[in-house]
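Quick review question:
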């Protein structure tokens, strides 16, 4: 019915015995109960600076609401509604499987349409992008991850290091930092063209993506993401219709935060 894409846990650093620690099952695995509701607000800003062209900057963002329908160790079934301000709104019933690695949408005939979960952030910790953590988390611990598929803000075959910044066992809270690199186009259908202006005229340029680098901090409480910030940069080449090549620097700033439910109006 679905196929997960595993990530590789390569190394885990040692930490001092005195460091505060908490089990990963308490901090990174949500303990959903049917009827619970959650809300998030999110935004991604993108800019492009290219030699000889006006800098482009734009953003999209909105909010999403989740209602838990059923929850068991193998799947989290929820009703999702969303709004992208200035774009569209919608809703669906979704099932998160394989500890969040796989996202399935329920079709009108009751079947599941499943895909790898490739969003840059969301409601829960996603091992596809973060790796399988050690059983116990403590500040200073690190692990490395191979991210095989291209995802929303990274190319395929990426590498990443995750660092535990802090742990608060009393509230099942952990702050993680992710720092990674990849080559090529991002996932989820990134466009291969850029629209830039020069001298008041808009031009379409072909994108030759280079190496991207991302780094950011995420706060997770009882398995639910409360705040997530990520800065992504990529040095690329743009090619004009005449074949000239232009150096470009692209930048994305992603922010997601928990919000009081409901967020939609």
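Suggested answer, residue by residue:
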């Amino acid at each position: 019915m679905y196929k997960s894409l595993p990530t590789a846990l390569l190394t885990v650093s040692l930490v001092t015995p005195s460091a505060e620690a908490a089990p990963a099952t308490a901090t990174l695995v949500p303990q959903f109960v049917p009827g619970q509701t959650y809300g998030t607000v999110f935004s991604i800003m993108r800019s492009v600076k290219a030699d000889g062209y006006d800098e482009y900057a734009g953003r999209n963002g909105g909010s999403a609401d989740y209602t838990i329908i059923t929850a068991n160790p193998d799947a989290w079934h929820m009703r999702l509604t969303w709004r992208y301000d200035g774009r569209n709104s919608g809703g669906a019933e979704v099932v998160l499987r394989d500890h969040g690695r796989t996202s399935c949408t329920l079709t009108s005939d009751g079947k599941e349409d499943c895909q790898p979960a490739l969003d840059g952030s969301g409601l829960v910790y996603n091992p596809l992008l973060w790796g399988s953590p050690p059983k116990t988390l403590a500040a200073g611990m690190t692990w490395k991850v191979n991210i095989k598929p291209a995802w929303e803000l990274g190319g395929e075959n990426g590498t990443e290091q995750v660092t535990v910044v802090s742990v608060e066992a009393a509230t099942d809270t952990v702050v993680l930092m992710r720092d990674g690199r990849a080559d090529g186009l991002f996932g989820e259908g990134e466009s291969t063209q850029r629209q830039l202006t020069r001298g008041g005229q808009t031009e379409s340029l072909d994108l030759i993506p280079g190496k991207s680098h991302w780094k950011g901090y995420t706060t997770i409480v009882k398995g639910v993401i409360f705040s997530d910030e990520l800065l992504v940069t990529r040095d690329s080449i743009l090619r004009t219709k005449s074949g000239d090549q232009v150096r470009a620097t692209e930048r994305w700033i992603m922010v997601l935060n928990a919000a009081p439910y409901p967020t939609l109006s």
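Why it works: DSSP finds two helices and 17 strands in the chain. Residues 8-13+24-30+43-61+123-259 form one domain.
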